[in-house]
């Protein structure tokens, strides 16, 4: 950069730059940072501008870091809640596409949407039909093996408009096949499926609403 000329034309005349390009104090300070060197301070003439900026950044930095750390801790705690015991290992994963079915039912003197059952098709990683997910909650593979489970932990979905992520413990088995030895199931990567926000009152009692959703299910068995 020092090979650039110290003059340039403006309106037909020339004027002298005070220093060659790259030798300006601020450029030198910037280049030191780029080279991994941390200069002790900017040249004195720039302290007036950058000292207040630096002070403002230092003032809010603890708050920002505290928020990020708290968020990370909460995320780690929720992730740990959804982990099966260490004695389990991942057997397979399936993708679900279907509906969450809700019923408008009385609840303590008022009506609200209550989950009735899921109704979804399950697909393998290569997109082939794997089985079904339905009331129970139950999962049935195309080979006839079936499991029913009970949720033991949940965590909010990163998508606020989607149903929670779950850890489910299997409480019953039937049939021989790929699901015969499954003991835990994770529901993750949910999209949609939340109960309607309105439309349920005494005049709509007993009505059902189907809300589209998708999710990934991870099936675990003992090592």
Salient structural properties:
single chain, 223 residues, alpha+beta, eight-stranded antiparallel beta barrel, 2 helices, globular, disordered N terminus
Structure description:
The chain has an eight-stranded antiparallel β-barrel with strand order 3-4-5-6-7-8-9-10. The chain has helices at residues 25-34, 44-81; strands spanning 7-10, 13-16, 88-107, 110-123, 129-134, 138-141, 146-155, 165-174, 184-192, 208-222. By secondary structure, the chain is of the alpha+beta class. The protein is built from two helices and ten strands, in the order ββααββββββββ. It folds into two domains: 7-80, no CATH class; 88-222, no CATH class. The longest helix is centred in the first third of the chain and has 38 residues, at 44-81.
- What fraction strand? 35-45%
Summarize the amount of helix as a percent range: 10-25%
Mean pLDDT, to the nearest integer, reads: 80
Overall shape: it is: globular
């Amino acid at each position: 950069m020092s090979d650039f000329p110290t003059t340039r034309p403006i309106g037909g005349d020339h004027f002298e730059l005070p220093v060659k390009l790259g030798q300006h104090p601020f450029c030198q300070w910037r280049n030191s940072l780029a080279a991994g060197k941390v200069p002790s301070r900017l040249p004195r003439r720039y302290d007036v501008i950058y000292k207040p900026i630096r002070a403002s950044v230092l003032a809010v930095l603890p708050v920002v870091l505290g928020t990020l750390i708290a968020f990370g801790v909460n995320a780690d705690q929720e992730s740990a809640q959804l982990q099966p015991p260490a004695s389990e290992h991942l057997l397979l994963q399936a993708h679900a596409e279907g509906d969450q079915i809700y019923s408008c039912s009385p609840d303590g003197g008022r009506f609200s949407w209550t989950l009735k059952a899921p109704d979804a098709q399950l697909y393998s990683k290569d997109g082939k039909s794997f089985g079904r997910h339905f009331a129970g909650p139950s999962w049935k593979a195309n080979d006839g093996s079936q499991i029913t489970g009970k949720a033991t932990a949940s965590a909010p979905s990163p998508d606020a408009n989607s149903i929670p992520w779950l850890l489910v413990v299997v409480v019953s088995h039937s049939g021989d096949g790929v699901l015969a030895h499954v003991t835990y199931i994770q529901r993750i990567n949910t999209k949609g499926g939340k109960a309607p926000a309105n439309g349920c009152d005494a005049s709509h009692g007993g009505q059902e609403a189907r809300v589209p959703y998708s999710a990934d299910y991870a099936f675990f068995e003992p090592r």
